[in-house]
Write a structure and sequence with these properties.
With 298 residues, the protein is α+β, with helices and mostly antiparallel strands. The chain folds into three domains: 71 residues, no CATH class; 139 residues, Maf protein, CATH 3.90.950.10; 66 residues, Dna Ligase, domain 1 (2-Layer Sandwich). The strands form three sheets. The protein has a five-stranded mixed β-sheet with strand order 3-2-4-5-6, with helices on both faces. The chain has a four-stranded antiparallel β-sheet with strand order 1-13-12-11, with no helix packed on it. Strand 8 and strand 9 form a beta hairpin. Helix 1 packs parallel to helix 5. The longest helix is centred in the C-terminal third of the chain and has 19 residues. The two termini are 34 Å apart. Bound molecules: zinc ion (2 copies). The site of one zinc ion has 8 residues, from loops.
């Protein structure tokens, strides 16, 4: 383990007698009913009370793309939390932000990465945690009015998971969200289809948190991980939120020492001070994988 402190100024020390957020009150900015997913783990783990404030989080970007997201997920989540803090006059805020799309390594698989932040403007820290899952239900299919929908409905786990009907990419027409009955689905396909020249519409999963139970599970897991992270204290200043902040790649090939793009170490960091510790991973097994080496095995 390697410790490294960049700053000369000693960090301000956080209280250790009880958790700094025990008995605190954070406000969750949400439009999509996430309170029941996020509040319980934080209440149970550290005694933080969480209430919600309705914020039109869609202004910061929507899944359906009517409003483009301007900022990366972390900044979007922080901005969302601050919207709620301003509205409620609290210095402690929470927000979550999902990114759902094709997996970078397996493009046919959909990955849901849920990020959650706790923003503490009094102490000037942001503590974030995330969770990634491929178990979110996500379908997208082009259909015409009158086409059979049974197989699509089964794949989408409809009506348990809601659907969206919209014109095929690029075409103008209504976007109908939150569809949760067969009747409204058929009507939406007909209405949307009549507004496009060829009658083809896209039926896809409604990925808003209220409409996707499988996504709700991923958000709940991210909240659980944030609670666990808040229990970890910085070894130097005792701030809550100590944990992994970066991964260092570069396992040397056992034969030629070429650095393979595999994780070699994890950097743990503090959200409040600059303290970092690098923990080397056990890569003994990977050192044998000469066959992955582009230099030895071009
Ligand atoms: Zn090699
Ligand atoms: Zn610290």
């Amino acid at each position: 383990m390697q410790s490294d402190l960049k700053s000369d100024t000693p960090p301000r020390l956080w209280p250790t007698v009880q958790h700094p957020y025990q008995g605190g009150h954070a406000v969750l900015a949400t439009k999509h009913n996430k309170l029941e997913l996020i509040a319980p783990p934080l209440q149970d783990a550290i005694g933080l009370l969480v209430t919600s404030v309705e914020v039109d989080t869609d202004l910061l970007g929507t899944f359906t793309g009517e409003i483009e997201r301007r900022l990366p997920p972390l900044e979007t989540a922080i901005e969302k939390a601050r919207l709620g803090m301003r509205l409620s006059g609290r210095s402690l805020g929470l927000a979550s932000e999902g990114s759902i799309g094709p997996s970078p390594s397996l493009p046919l698989i959909t990955v849901d990465r849920e990020l959650i932040v706790l923003v503490d403007d009094e102490a000037d820290v942001v503590i974030s945690e995330s969770y990634e899952s491929t178990s979110v239900r996500s379908v997208s299919r082009n259909v015409r009015p009158g086409d059979p929908l049974e197989e699509l409905m089964e794949r989408a786990d409809f009506p348990h998971h809601h659907l969206i009907v919209r014109p095929v990419n690029g075409q103008k027409g209504p976007i109908i969200k939150g569809i949760n009955t067969l009747e409204t689905l058929i009507d939406a396909v007909a209405a949307c289809g009549s507004s496009t020249p060829d009658g083809v519409v896209t039926v896809e999963s409604d990925l808003r948190a209220t409409a996707s139970p499988s996504r709700r599970l991923v958000i709940a897991e991210a909240a659980q991980r944030l609670a666990m992270r808040l229990l970890q204290r910085c070894p130097l200043c005792h701030a809550p939120g100590w944990g992994p902040v970066a991964i260092i790649d570069g396992v040397p090939c056992s034969s030629c020492s070429y650095e393979l793009p595999l994780p070699r170490a994890v950097v743990h960091g503090c959200p409040s001070c600059e303290h970092r510790e690098t923990i080397e991973l056990d890569t003994t097994n990977e050192r044998d994988t000469v066959r992955f080496c582009p230099s030895c095995n071009p």
